[in-house]
Amino acid sequence: MSISVLLTVPVLFLSAFARCDSQPNIVFIFADDYGWNDIGYHNPIFQTPNLNSLAADGIKLENYYVAPVCTPSRGQLLTGRYAMRYGLVHRNIRPAQRMCLPLDEVTLPEKMKQAGYATHMVGKWHQGFYTPACIPTQRGFDSFFGFYICTEDYFTHSASGGFDLKRGETDPLFLYLAYQSVHAKYASVPQQYSDLYNGIIEDERRRTLAGMVTCMDEGIGNITKTLKDSGIWDNTILIFSNDNGGLPAHGGNNWPLRVRESLYECCSG
Fold this sequence. Notes:
The protein is 20% helix and 16% strand. The strands form three sheets. A six-stranded mixed sheet has the order 8-5-4-9-3-10, covered by helices on one side. It has a two-stranded antiparallel sheet with strand order 1-2. The chain is an alpha/beta fold. It has a single domain, classed as Alkaline Phosphatase, subunit A, CATH 3.40.720.10. Residues 24-246 form the Sulfatase N-terminal domain. Belongs to the sulfatase family. Its cofactor is Ca(2+). This is Arylsulfatase B-like.
């Protein structure tokens, strides 16, 4: 039987517990700025059938904590340590800053490699890149395809005056998939997704965000289908989580949890 794990803001699902003869594959999906009230089983307005199904078949963890902004939240995931321990607790790393996750920190992918895993990352890094030693393929990942900074245009992959889309320089698989979705800066989604909420959500920003949520949910459905079609779903742990809550000023909603608007940083510059 499969072991699948999902985390939203904050939620954990474990579809089944099974004793495996071999090490399980692990797929960790990380959403960006995703609000507590922006998933279907918390708010039925949102069309998230794949996340709802994974939640229904698993165990939900709805009482855990993440950092309020991207860099410390992601660094804590990658190191298993509070960001205050290594000096990245207060702010996001800006594109021009000579700063990164401290090089003496041991990372999750490094430990996974020691356990015999092939380690791969797709998506948002945001742990610094001012020197080659800081980038994902130097911090334990065998491969990387994604972007280094806080946020970028969803279609052109441009931000802060430049282009940011990089491809990194029978083992069990560890895949860290860090979505930019549903980060609201450069908010954009194919029209058919936001059109699903016409006449349901009046606010244009929230309607766009809802479309982004549904598009992300479809992508997660494609991932689970691929795992099943490949015959490895029954020996896979799938985790879904979020770096921090939604931003009300850009359409996100954390009700009934506390608003994080005052903690928002735009990440540019």
